[in-house]
Amino acid sequence: MAETATPPRRWQVPLAVVVAVYIAALVALWSMLPQKDGATDWFAPLDPGGWMAWTFPTATFFLTIFLLLSLMAVWEYASPGGDPRVGVLRFETTRGDRLFLSLLGSAFINLAWLGLVGPNLWWALGLSLLYAVAVFRYV
Fold first, then answer.
1. Which of 29, 48, 99, 100 counts the most CB atoms within 10 A of its CB?
2. Domain count, the chain
3. What is the spatial distance between Cα 139 and Cα 126, in angstroms, rounded to a whole number?
4. Does 3 map to a domain?
5. Residue range 78-92, pLDDT digits in tens
6. pTM of the full structure
7. Residues 76, 126 share a domain
8. How many CB atoms lie within 10 A of CB 113?
């Protein structure tokens, strides 16, 4: 019985690099967190006096967007193309389109939550994740 050769997994190294960079950036952000009265101040500016109030949650948000885009690039590298498909919205979408729709919709969900409910965004995060799963599954 002849053994079949397994195809090379050329996506493993780029995936490991993306995840390692993300973790290293989170650790660097974590080390920059200011201390206030012996406790970590999560919402204090990471760069006091800077032009923008880069807090840990803000920096983590943009870092996670970068992670998602990088993971999509690795996915395209590992499995190029991805057939466009027509979902419930009746227009063709690719994986990149669905990522964009899920990020855009999540932004609107969080903005609506801020305006209608208040600053506690954990439920909005859960809704955004459910929305992203629905977009990737049905759109």
1. 99
2. 2
3. 19
4. no
5. 888 777 888 887 889
6. 0.78
7. no
8. 19
